[in-house]
Structures are given as C-alpha cells and as structure tokens.
Amino acid sequence: MSGDTILKKLIGRTPFLKDALDHHMLEVISGASTAFVLKAVGTGLAFLFNVVLARKLGVEGAGLYFLAFTVISIAGVLSCAGLDNALLRFVASSAAAGDWTAVKGACRKGLIISAAASIVSAVFVFSASPWIAKAVFSKPELAGVLRWMSLAIFPMSMLVIYSEMLKGLKLIMKSHLVQGVLVWLLSLTGILFLSGVWGVYGAVWAFTAASFVTAVVATILWRRAVPQLKGIKGNFRLNKLLDSSVPLFLVSAMYLVIQWTSTFALGIWGTKAEVGVFSVAFRTAMLISFVLISVKSIAAPKFAALYSLGDMDALGKTARNSARLLTLMAAPVLALFIIFPSRIMGVFGEEFRQGGMILAILAAGQFVNVATGSVGYLLMMSGNERILRNNVAFAAAVNVALNALLVPRYGILGAAVATSLSVSLLNITASYLVYKKINIKTIPWPDLKRWSDG
User: Fold this and answer.
1) What is the dihedral of CA 226, 232, 238, 239, to 10 degrees?
2) Which tens digit of pLDDT belongs to each residue from 147-186?
3) Domain span including residue 393
4) For a surface tag, which of 112, 185, 281, 427 has the fewest beta carbons within 10 Å of its beta carbon?
5) Does residue 220 belong to any structural domain of this protein?
6) DSSP state of 179
7) Which of 350, 359, 52 is nearest to 207 (CA)?
8) Residue 6 resides in a domain
9) Phi, psi angle pair for 97, to nearest 5°
10) 3-state secondary structure (DSSP) of residue 1
C-alpha cells in the first residue's frame, strides 16, 4: 500500500484532518515531503561543509571565506535581478494554462538578462577585489580570496534561475537537487581534498568548481523537462516580465541588506574571528527555516495557480494550514538551539563555543520567520510585489540602523540582536499585509473590521 493511500485512509477516518487537509493541502504536503527530504539532505551537506570548513580554517580563515561569500552572494542575487521569482511565477501560471509559447518566451528573455548581468558583476568584483578588501573591510588578505570566488557569480546565478523555473513546473526534486544538494555535495568533496593543502583558497576553489558543474547539470535537467518547447517560438512581452521582476529585484536587494548587513558591519567594525563565529551561528540558525523553504517550494506555484483561478477560499486555507505545519516542524529545532546553544556551536570547534548566545538569539528570529508562514510568497504570487518591496525596504532600513547603532558598541551580540529583530519585524508586518490585502490570516490577527463596526 502506497504512502498516499495510507494518508488518505487516515484522513477519511479523522474528522479534524479531513477538514484541514483538502486536496490542495495534500498536494503541498506530498510535494513538500519530497522537498523536505532533499532539503534535509542539502541542509545536512551544507552544515557538514560549514563544520569541515570551520575546523580546517579556524575562526579567522572561516571569517575570510564568509566575507568573500557574502560579497559574491550579493552580486549573484543582484545579477538575477528579481527574474528568479518572476520566472517562477510566470512559468507556474503559464504551464498550468498550457501556454508553452509564453513559458519559452519568458525563460529565454530572463536567461539572457541574468547571464549578461552576472558576467558584468563577476568582472566588476574580480577587478575591484583589492579595493573592496582594503577600503571597505580593511583586510588586504581578503583580496585574493574574493577574486577567485568572483568566478562563481555566473554559474550560481544560472543554477538559481534554472532551479526556480524547475520549481515553477512543480519539479521539486530536480529543483532541490541542483540548488540544495549537488552544489554542497561537490563543495564538500572538494574542500576535503583542497583545503588541507591550500587553506582558504582550496575552500574557494572547491565551491567555485562545484558551482560550474551544478550549473551545467541544471541546464540539462531543464531542457529534458520541457520537450514541449522544442520547435515552438517563444512569445512573452518583456515589459510584463520586467513589471514583475523589477519590484522583485528590489525585494531581493533589500532581503540581502537584512541577511548580510550584520556580516558587513562586523567586517568593518569587528574582527575576522567575530565574522567567523557570527557566520557559523547564522547558518546554523537557518536550519530552523529549512522547513519553510521545503514547503514554499511547492506552495509558491500552488499559490500562483489558485490566485490566478480566483479560488481565494482554497488559497487562504492552504496558506493557514501550511503555517501551522511549519510551526510544528520548527518548534523542536528551536528548543534544541535554545537549550544547548554552546554545545551545538562547539561542533565547529572549541573556538566557536563563545557563539552559543548568538545562536540562540538568531534562532528566535528564524522561528518567527517560519511561524508566520509563506507570507512573502503570498504577496508575490498574488501580484502584490510592490507592497512586499515596501515592507522589505522598511525592515532593511531598520536593520541598517540597528547595526549602525549596536555593532560598534556591542560587537557580535549587537549584530545578532539587529538581525533577529529585523527578521521578526519583516515577517510579522508581511503577515499583517497579507491579511489586509487579500484577507488571509496566517497568524490570528484580530478582526479590525468587526471592531470598527462594533
């Protein structure tokens, strides 16, 4: 008997589950279960990569690596120009309607723009590496590390674009395989062989090579997934693509501010050791939100399809039940990080134990991110990109202000508080905006209309 058959029988005999798990939610759970397994494998590999990197390079070497990774991550997201999320939306809606001409047109235009932007970004970072290292971070030894890592900008941008397009076709396994599993498996294999001899440069070479190989695999998987595109001429208005991608590009840029400002602030006002400890703690805290990413993988195209069909009841019910599922899954991980933070950080080496409090603070912010549900995608997939942009911009401004205020005075502790508060603010306000704009509650907001009428 298959797992799906068992689940359906259980639901049929349980009134609560029958009410909560309709066929839309079952599709989310079915897809998310696959995504969850692959995301768990990918997250485990990424975690193991960070452990090996931290143990082999120490806090200062890890600090240099993560500073360079921060710079190229920013360049990579900016190179995607919001097209990754825009293509997810349009591939999902066009494929659902059977409009493969639109799918091909949107993908071709998106890939050309992103490829050109990523090449320009890579050339800039490669050329400006000495200036960035000295003028921005006052760490001249960062220049060579950053220069080599800049070569990963182009392949990383391409594999992200292809991964999101695969996600739009609901090919969750293939999407997570390239973006979550393969790149970290190859990076981990490379670092085991290269970092022992070449240190931080070996770690950078391992990641860069892994990015190129994974980008090639992603390209092949996409072409095999869409035989419908062969022999047809793509047709999709560039203005329509840009109308969605430009606000999403600004959203991505502001998300970067929230995610990486604390690392930048520590790079400027702190030490390489503080950057190393904070980066490891931040990536460990992100383990809480990997369940959110798993569910969002299938929920995002489902949200887009339901909204385009005008089925708001199903959309609201799916969003609420997804948020409840996420909260239940994330709670045990949060408890672990709150109770044993120093022991968990000690896995990376004795030098990292000092980051226990940092891990606990960052984990609290990530739990709020998970408990509010896929609110960013709800706004994005319902055509409220500009509202999402404004909300993220507000949270990013708060993040910058908090870092400027707290990091010079409190160091790594101030960075953790700034990040956690900003992430919490972003998601709570986004949840309220979802309630206000499309009348969907992912958390129990009070009925303001009833209050005003009463």
Assistant:
1) -100
2) 999 999 999 999 999 998 998 887 878 888 888 789 999 9
3) 23-453
4) 112
5) yes
6) I
7) 52
8) no
9) -90, -5
10) coil
The stretch 295-313 carries a mean pLDDT of: 66
pLDDT digit string, tens, across residues 206-262? 999 999 999 999 999 999 988 888 878 888 888 888 887 877 777 778 888 888 899
Q: Is residue 8 part of a domain?
A: no
Model pTM greater than 0.85? Answer: no
3-state helix, strand, coil in the chain (%, to 5): 90, 0, 10
Domain assignment present for 3? no
| Distance separating alpha carbons of residues 400 and 3, to the nearest angstrom | 47
DSSP notation for 415-426? HHHHHHHHHHHH
Number of domains composing the chain: 1
Residue with tokens 């674009």: 161
- Lookup result for tokens 């805290």: 285
Q: Among candidates 434, 435, 430, 431, which has minimal Cα distance to 448?
A: 435
> For residue 348, what is the DSSP state?
T
Read off φ and ψ for residue 207, nearest 5 degrees.
-65, -40
Q: How far apart are CA 298 and CA 302, in angstroms?
A: 6
